[in-house]
């Protein structure tokens, strides 16, 4: 009886997996009981990792599963996001540069949950998907998990059976009261790679020091996110003079800094060297867009859309700016970004409109 009792105790504590569908090893980091075997992931079920405690839908992080939030968020059809990071013990990430992804060790996991809290009718909360990026010895891999309607589990769909991705019809209410119905796009692995690609290798997007050098309200108090990573043993160190992006919604910040921050998180991962839109004329990384030419001001578009839409940015005239046209389009042949949205981000378009209208130079 004592042996049986101890076995049940170990199962309860998470020291061993008592599930038949996964062969896993538990990685203990201080008091963390996250289940993670680098050779067995991705698991078939999100719950197997034990990233969260209690009811899965509450997304209550386990010990050493650290929440984070970039200064500005990538727009995904107004979906809200809860992001977390977990790393195995005795390894740390390293700072390379303000605008370079933190150099993460093997075993690092980035966890991103997409949900709405105004699903109609009734303004209910519904999690649609959880995306993992896992750092293996061969590089980063994607793992896409779809939540069931009961919100009790999320199942792995990455692989050949999900090669074309899928869509989920959803009706939700925006902050301004508008009711929106759309076919929310759940990306395939190929679609994930299209944006998360540099030098033809998968990489994260938002985990740059310039995006994380801000505070977060943790359960034990407000703290700088990078300092939190240091304190948790997840980051070696970081400089005190990081040139950082801002929350593009923060109207107390300069208009140009807000727009540059918006373009950095939404567009720069494709519009950079050796990325998907390398061939295009503009470079939209926050570190480069202090140069208006990099932003496309007075620059002829790679694909002009008629005599009134020749320049990427026509100062003072949003209606004659290709960037404004593409951001305001839902047509798959014209819209930017190409992936990740099916509807127009009204606030993003308005921000771009204000910035273009504020420019008063004359193009040669």
UniProtKB/TrEMBL annotation:
Q: Which domain of life is it from?
A: Bacteria
Tell me the protein's name. Answer: Repeat protein (TIGR03806 family)
Organism, per UniProt?
Chryseobacterium nepalense
